[in-house]
Structure formats: structure tokens, C-alpha cells
Design brief:
2 helices; seven-stranded mixed beta sheet; four-stranded mixed beta sheet; 11 strands; Metal Binding Protein, Guanine Nucleotide Exchange Factor, Chain A; mainly beta
């Protein structure tokens, strides 16, 4: 299955190759202040391949807070946050926001509240290496 998603105006879009086809998709509703205010509900498929396209990079803001180990990709045109990346040991990992999916039935999503507030930076980065999408490619617009 190819999961498609992106911001509201289409400036940031993605395709996530999810094989084998999921019977359900975990949807982690983070309780941090940023995710709560922006509707961030995240999923990843560690064995998946994520292709991200940005039409106009000048309209993307990268926001980091807390441990400064993750970058929220915010479209400055429409305000939507379709993905988060984290670079660990020189490798980029990512999660995508299920609220930005365009071709997934909501019944496929399994919502779970999560809290990472007490997690050390070392544990946080190790969790991302285990659980986030490891095959992340940014492609030029028009490809």
C-alpha cells in the first residue's frame, strides 16, 4: 500500500510505501504542547520507504524545541505539519502525521495516546532508530 499525504495547500507531500499492507495503522497522539496545538498524531513503519516532495522550500519552516533532536516540517503557507525528521548518527528518520493522509480510511487508524516527557535524549534517539521510518528520501518538485 502507498499511503499518500501532505499539507493542506500541497506544498509538502509524501508517499509512504507500507508493505505488507496494514490491517491497522498505529496513530500515536503525542501529549506535548506542540503536537497538542497542531493536531500531531504520528505513525511510522520502520520497514517502509518515505518519499517527501517540497514544491517551494521557502515556504517550509523547520521547528525544533525541547531536546532539539527533531525537526517539525511546518508549511508556512497553510500551517500544517505533515512530518517530523530526526537525524541520528548521520541518518535521517521520520514519522508522518495521520491527520494529513489523503487515501487512508479512518477506520484503519488505531489511536493511542503517548507521552515522551520523561524520556532521556539517549532513550529517545534509540527509540527513533528502532521505530521511525529509516528509508527517507526528499525528491525535487516535479519528479
Amino acid at each position: 500500500m502507498v499511503v499518500q499525504g501532505g499539507c493542506h495547500c500541497g506544498n509538502i507531500s509524501f508517499n509512504l510505501n507500507w508493505e505488507p499492507e496494514p490491517t491497522e495503522i498505529p496513530a500515536r497522539a503525542c501529549d506535548c504542547s506542540f503536537c497538542s496545538k497542531h493536531g500531531g498524531v504520528w505513525t511510522s513503519h520502520p520497514a517502509g520507504a518515505l518519499s517527501v516532495r517540497v514544491d517551494d522550500e521557502s515556504h517550509v519552516s523547520l521547528y525544533s524545541f525541547g531536546t532539539h533532536t527533531a525537526q517539525f516540517h511546518v508549511c508556512s503557507r497553510c500551517g500544517v505539519v505533515p512530518l517530523v525528521t530526526s537525524t541520528v548518527d548521520g541518518h535521517v528518520y521520520a514519522v508522518v502525521n495521520v491527520n494529513t493522509f489523503t487515501n487512508v480510511a479512518p477506520s484503519l487508524l488505531r489511536a493511542v495516546p503517548v507521552s515522551f516527557g520523561g524520556e532521556s535524549t539517549e532513550l529517545r534517539l534509540a527509540r527513533r532508530q528502532r521505530n521511525w521510518i529509516a528509508d527517507v528520501q526528499f525528491v525535487a518538485a516535479g519528479r
